[in-house]
């Protein structure tokens, strides 16, 4: 798997620029195209012409990393709609977690929640400055048929990284999805489960099987700088009532989090029919 197109959202804030820098590093590593999109929930009076600033940023990144960088023109349909249009043609959408802040009614979730739920491609939420390639990738496994695609995507995203497969098993012993990868040798893979961390064992003994919390514990234990999480698409009400694992995970860890929809690890041309992507205005 190789990235061909990476889309990064920015409003020129410090957190957003960390996400842009990470997107540029990944695009350069994969020799991919980088697309920048101005995505601000509220207009900042400091930027009289944000599109001009975006184009200047694109030129800077292009010279620095030696890759093609394009400043996209949003269609003016709002942050979510414009981001989804860009993501429909991409292999990865990169943003920071600033769009999670603020109070939102259950019928109007925050921008980050909507993008995590609706994006046709994997979404990388950057929480730390990009200081080189990822070194330790923690992949959350389940027994779903989409696990092979999830592992391929996670392993190929940063080929030099150590990959650790984590399964929050409700019973002692490795799950089928874990056993399926004991023979994988193309990445440096380590297998772990919820029983390796003391606090996780307590959770299981009292019946708590909270994947987000278990991942927080494991990330703290091993010092992973990227967590990769598969995502089953559910209805808006179901996600609201149960709580989205990815959003709760982002509240508990400081590392970056990559959310891969179970139908989103394929190439863009294989999933264009899943998302309506009208032309840019």
Automatic annotation (TrEMBL):
Keywords from the named record:
Cytoplasm
Spell out the InterPro entries in the cross-references: Rossmann-like_a/b/a_fold (IPR014729), Universal_stress_UspA (IPR006015), UspA (IPR006016)
This protein's GO cellular component annotations are: cytoplasm
Short name of any one Pfam family annotated for the protein? Usp
Indicate where this protein resides in the cell. Cytoplasm
* Record keyword Phosphoprotein present: no
* Tagged with keyword Cytoplasm: yes
Q: Which residues cross the membrane?
A: none
Quaternary structure annotation from Swiss-Prot or TrEMBL: Homodimer.
From the Swiss-Prot or TrEMBL record, give the protein name.
Nucleotide-binding universal stress protein, UspA family
Please report the organism this UniProt entry assigns to the protein: Paenacidovorax caeni
